[in-house]
Amino acid sequence: MNLQKKLYILLEEPATNRASYLLNLFIYFLILMSIVSLMLQSVENLNAKYAQAFEMTNNIIMQFFIVEYIARLYASGAVMPYRGFMGKIRYIFSPYAIIDLLAIAPYMLMGFNIDNSFVRALRLLRVFRLFRMQKYARFLHTLREIIQDKKEEFIVLLVYTLIILVMLAFIIYGIEHEAQPDVFSNIPQTLWWAVATLTTVGYGDMYPITAEGKFITAVISLLGIGFVAIPGGILASEFTERLQEQKEKKCKLHACPKCCSDNIEVFENPKVIIGSKEKSFNKLHHCKACNFKWLE
User: Fold this and answer.
1) Could you list the residue range(s) of the whole structural domain that residue 183 is in?
2) Which of 131, 156, 183 is the last residue in one of the domains?
3) Is 164 exposed, middle or buried (0-12, 13-18, 19+ CB in 10 A)?
4) What are the angstrom distances between the C-alpha of 136 and each of 38, 124, 125, 241?
5) Which of 56, 126, 185, 275 has a Cα-to-Cα distance from 40 of 20 to 30 A?
6) What percentage of the chain's residues is helix, strand, coil (to nearest 5)?
7) E strand or H helix at 271, and its extent?
8) How far is CA 134 from CA 55, 120, 129, 162, 285, in A?
9) What is the CATH number for 12?
10) How far apart (Å, rounded) are the C-alpha atoms in residues 12 and 73?
11) What's the rounded Cα separation, in Å, for the pair 46 and 30?
12) DSSP 8-class letter at 186
């Protein structure tokens, strides 16, 4: 295995070994420190007192980010799509690489007064690389399957929600416009009220004052509870069903059919006396957890 491949595994495959996992954790820690530093800099009295410390922290972290970007660019050649000059171009324009480049570009172009605070926050998306580990990957795969299988239900719910929102905007605009022409000044602005009401957020910046408007708002607020709960209910029920299926499948393949424990002791070629005859079997399985035995 050459250096490029080793570096690629170290940077891009945290699930393969402990060193890679710890290195990626360290990188995420630096990203978090960078974001916390930027947040604290926005506090005026803290920035006035610790401006030099914040600047030093930023400079140190950005040096790590620059080295990391160059290392990832070099290591990308270990996989076929990113080999050669055109491969490097493809890597540079891949989503993670774009975020990495945007995060360090303002630092490298000091004097142009470019703010990269939002892009640095985007680098937290790299934490999903840790989710390539098998136990996290199974969860994400199950979630993707559920969304794929239930996409028709979600689409229908979304369409009905949009229809209700538009109808609400027209109705409340017709009722409240004369009473509050400055608040419910047009239908697009009233649509904002409809979204806040149906989702039960209720910011309070727009609210009806007529009796009809208050009645409709009360009804829609109650309906909104159901609309918010439906997607969560679909996901929860599907997750429960998929987990049960996975558990049953695991029991059938690898574990005790009685208690699903994988603490199984196996005896090869056992002989069992049935009645007055001795009969041979391939295997005798003994579950140490529940003491259940079965022959194969």
Assistant:
1) 145-254
2) 131
3) middle
4) 30, 17, 15, 18
5) 126
6) 70, 5, 20
7) strand 271-274
8) 39, 28, 12, 38, 28
9) 1.20.120.350
10) 11
11) 20
12) S
> What dihedral do alpha carbons 209, 211, 217, 223 form, nearest 10°?
170
Count of residues making up the chain: 296
Tokens read off for 26: 């360290």
Q: What pLDDT, in 10s, does the model give residues 216-261?
A: 888 888 888 877 788 878 888 888 887 777 666 665 555 676 667 7
For 248, 249, 275, 287, the CA distances from 259, given in Å and listed in that order, are: 11, 13, 29, 9
Distance CA 121, CA 99 (A): 10
Angle at CA 270, nearest 5°, toward 269 and 271?
120
pLDDT in tens, 132-174: 455 556 676 777 888 888 888 888 888 888 888 889 889 998 9
Give the three-class secondary structure for 202. coil
What is the enclosing helix (H) or strand (E) of 57?
Answer: helix 44-75
Structure tokens at 210: 């007529």
Query: Does 140 map to a domain?
Result: no
For residue 108, which amino acid is it?
M
Output the DSSP codes for 203-249: -SSS---SHHHHHHHHHHHHHHHHHHHHHHHHHHHHHHHHHHHHHHH
Q: With respect to residue 139, please indicate whether it lies within any of the assigned structural domains.
A: no
What is the number of structural domains in the chain? 3
